[in-house]
Structure formats: structure tokens, C-alpha cells
Amino acid sequence: MNPPLNPAGNLAGSALLTDLYQLTMLQGYHDSGMEDVAVFEFFVRKLRSGRGFLMAAGLEQSLQFLEGLRFSPDELAWLASTGRFNNGFLAQLETLRFTGDVHAMPEGTVFFPNEPILRVTAPIAQAQLVETRLINLLHFQTLIASKAARMVLVAPDKLLVDFGLRRAHGAEAGLLAARASYLAGFTGTATVQAGMQLGIPLFGTMAHSFVQAHDGEMLAFEHFAHAQPDNVVLLIDTYDTEEGARKVVALAPQLERSGIRIKGVRIDSGNLADHARQVRRILDAGGLQHATIFASGDLDEYLLRDMLASGAPVDGFGIGTRMDTSSDVPYLDCAYKLQEYAGKARRKRSEGKQTWPGRKQVYRSHDADGRMTADVVTLEGDAQPGEPLLVPVMRAGQRHATATLADIRSHAATCLARLPEPLRQLQEPYNYRVEIARALHELAAQVDRNISF
């Protein structure tokens, strides 16, 4: 029997959410008696154009996955039916649980290339098996949080709402995008399940189909207002945006007599900045100075920046496709690599993909105003000036206290406030200084001397 796909349940997932080679390597370790402790680290090799920094996200689901790691009887029976694995190895999988330690940057932390944001220390079979799913969870939410953070920086005082579920790459992606954007500073999401499951504030208006289903736009507005008297935000661009705004003004006194106040209008098409200026004049002239203007429609940080720089009177934005797919940078050059095994530092030397060996720590320095000035990546025991960014989050398979989304949002806001001003203004490329400490260079040279080809 196949395990059910249930986005409403644990978002971490099955042990079979892995690549086949993880299991074939595990059988190789088992058959060879290799059971020593391994250290793996997750990091990004380099930044893509359009990203001056990244924001760590996905740790909660990663720890959830590690805590629940196990193979069900149905999964083990299916693995046995493939004929790929011997009985002794399958018996080991039956009792496999994650018993290792995890160090990580707290979610919401800003980071840069070659800085590990998560370190796993565990018997090699455990540390190896979890590679695929950890990359999957950390990569996606980090990708979305990093995109969302850019919009928070260009529109810091605006209502920002995730509208992207319908264009997300699957149900889990839509839910995790709502979470990642919220921790990065978004106000909320339109995804209802994210409200129930994750406690994220919900926002929504109405669709063009509601207006089209009525014989008149005014009647549609009236019906919606009576159906949602506490949240009357009317979509006014189904036919003619400015005419729609005039109908809102005409309807307002009638609704007021029923105790209903129009909260705002939404514009979803055309030149949003120009329409917003004209609609603002119509609403103000009609006595609806309190009514907000909410814009949506294929937006990203660059369009937000241009609209706000032009003085467009927009109070909030619905951000969908370009954020939930991170359309300009749809993937990160990230990796989860072995850095130590059986007490010995290990290093990959593949062309263009070399790694720094050993268990690492990242130290961050700030100036007198609290702004970030430089990072140093070094070995865990090589203390440097500044703040250490990696902290213990799991010991012997048991996590430490769980951070709330409110805590994570606060930490993310602090990190964004501490960015150097060019990064806050999205001035790219900007080369934030990340130094590789002498201790790492020396260890890499030592490992190279000891490698047998």
C-alpha cells in the first residue's frame, strides 16, 4: 500500500521521500559495517543574480522530519518486494530512528554563500538517509523566504499578502510558501489551510467570477457586502476600474444605513499605479477617504518598488506567482555534504564544487549602529570576534524548545534591519564580506595531503 499524501497532516513526510541512492548507499554501509559518526552540513555555494542575501527557513519542518523518521511496515514490505535489498539491511531499517545532534541558524537569519545553516551529527546511515528530504525542505522555504524578504524591504509599511497557492508547485509548496513568506515579514496569506494549521492571519476579497455571475456590478457589490459585512473589500476592475470605483461610492451610503462600512477596493489588472491614483481621487471625492486600495496581479519586488517610488496610493499588495515560484531565481545552488567521518575531517574536491572540511561555525560582526559588517566561517572550536550564528537545536534526536512563528518573524525583522544599507535597498551586486578563516585553509590543506587517490 502506498503511504497517503496528506498535506493537512505532518508536513515533514515519509522516510521514502528520498532518492534511491540513499538506500543503496545505506545497504553498502550496513554490509561493510560502517557505523561511525558522520557530520554533514547544508549550505549554498554561491548567490544567483538577483539575490544579495538569503534568509534561512525550513528548520521547523526539518526537525519534525528527523523526530518522526521511521519506516512503516507497509514501506518496508514494499522495499522488500523490489528485490534490491537484503533481509539484514531491511531489519536494520525497521528499527532506524534519528538519534543525532543538529546545529542550525535560527529561521529568519540572513546568510551568505559557504555558510552552513544546518549541521547534522549522527551515525552515518542516519545522517546520509535524511539528505534528500532536508535539502528539499530547507531549499524551498529558504528560496521563498528570501524572495519575500525583498518585498518586505521595498514595502515595509504595506499590507503584504501571499496569494500564490493556485500557482504553487503542489499543495505542500503552497502551504510552505505561506509559512516562509509570513516568517519573512508578510502580513498574512489567502491560503485557508495555512490559517488553520499554521496560525497565519488570513486575508481575502472576491473574484471576478462573483461579479460576472450577477446581472449588474452594483448588485454583486451589494450581495458581497451583506455576505461579508466585516470585510467589505470589493474587486472593481471586472469591467471598468474607474466606473467600478464610482459604483462603490454610490453604494456606500446605502450600506452605511445597514451598518456596513466599505473597508476597501482591490485592483487586479491594467496599469495598477495609474488606476490607483484615479481610484483614490474618486473614493476621496465620494467621502471614502478611509477606504484602502489593495493591488494584485503578477507583482514582485521590482514592480512594488517602482509603484511606490511613483507615489502610487496603494495600501497593500497580493503577491502570487512570482513569489510562490520565486520566478526570477527558481532554485538555489545548495548542497548537503559530508565534512567529517569517524573523527576525521573529509573534503570534496570536485572541480567547481570543492568543500571546506570539518565542523564549522559562522561568526558575524556588527558596527556601532548594529549593522552587519562581515562574517567569518571557521572551525567549531576556533572562536572569532562576533556573534556565533549556529546554535544547538536537537540533541540525541530530541529537539530543544520550538520557536513560535511570532518569534521567528521578530528575529527575521531584526536581521533585515541589520543588513547593510545597499542590501536593504536591493542594490546588487553587493559583495558582503565573508571570510574563510585560516584554520579552515589549514585543515583543507591537511586533508588534501592525506587523501589517497
Polypeptide structure, described:
This protein has two domains: 248 residues, nicotinate phosphoribosyltransferase; 170 residues, Aldolase class I (TIM Barrel). The protein is built from 17 helices and 19 strands. A seven-stranded antiparallel β-sheet has the order 13-12-1-5-3-17-18.
Task: Tell me the number of helical segments per DSSP (H or I, 4 or more residues long).
Answer: 17
Proportion of β residues?
15-25%
Largest sheet: 7 strands, antiparallel
CATH superfamily of the largest domain: nicotinate phosphoribosyltransferase
* Average residue-wise pLDDT: 95
The beta-strand count equals 19
Distance between the termini: 45 Å
Task: Please give the radius of gyration in angstroms.
Answer: 26 Å
* SSE class: alpha/beta
Low-pLDDT residue intervals, each spanning 5 or more residues: 1-9
* Fold-level CATH name of the largest domain: nicotinate phosphoribosyltransferase
Count of individual domains: 2
Shape: elongated
